[in-house]
Amino acid sequence: MAVNTNLTGSLITTILDSLQTNATYVAVGLGTVDPSSTDTVMETETLRKARQEYSRDDGAGEITISGFFNSLEANGVTLNRVATFNAASSGDMYNHTPITDVEKDNQKELWVDITFQVEIL
Q1: Within 10 Å of residue 110's Cβ, how many Cβ atoms?
Q2: What DSSP designation does 59 have?
Q3: In degrees rounded to 5, what are phi and psi of residue 107?
Q4: What does DSSP assign to residue 6?
Q5: Can you tell me whether residue 93 is helix, strand or coil?
Q6: What is the DSSP string of 12-44?
Q7: 80 in helix, strand or coil?
Q8: pLDDT in tens, 75-93
Q9: Is 76 left (phi over 0), alpha (psi -120 to 50) or beta?
Q10: Coil, strand or helix: which one is 100?
């Protein structure tokens, strides 16, 4: 069965709209267990902040959610996970992703870009 391209475009737009509206917080933390699609929390969340910005490309089916952590935030740990949520605490998790270790201290600022790509197969 073939899916009509108008329907596909509509579904992608709906998903991007939902992410734009709901994935409004970015969290950083650490963990040793591989993230899973069933995760609802981070293993160890260090700090969660309102997203700094987002960019969206409907034609590519992508949205990037960005967070910024300044030199005074999330220090003293080696960060290796990022996630997006819809609330300042608790809430729904939209992703949970490992990153390359960042030994965060007061000499470093951290900019996190999380790109969601929506594709209908």
Answers
A1: 18
A2: T
A3: -100, 0
A4: H
A5: strand
A6: HHHHHHHHHHH--EEEEEE-SSPP-TT--S-SE
A7: strand
A8: 999 999 999 999 999 999 9
A9: left
A10: strand
How many C-beta neighbours within 10 Å does residue 70 have? 12
- The pair of structure tokens assigned to 82 is 């990022």
Q: Do residues 87 and 45 touch, judged by C-beta distance below 8 A?
A: no
- Summarised one tens digit per residue, pLDDT across range 1-27 is 455 677 788 999 999 999 999 999 999
pLDDT tens column, 53-78 = 999 999 999 999 999 999 999 999 99
Q: How far apart are CA 114 and CA 67, in angstroms?
A: 9
The alpha-helical segments, DSSP class H, found in 41-108 are: none
Q: Is 107 exposed, middle or buried (0-12, 13-18, 19+ CB in 10 A)?
A: exposed
Write down the residue that tokens 């967070």 correspond to.
67
CA quadruple 85, 77, 75, 53: dihedral sign:
negative
For residues 62 and 12, what is the distance between their CA atoms, to the nearest angstrom?
A: 9
Question: Quick count: other Cβ atoms within 10 Å of Cβ 83?
Answer: 24
**Residue boundaries of the structural domains of the chain:** 5-117
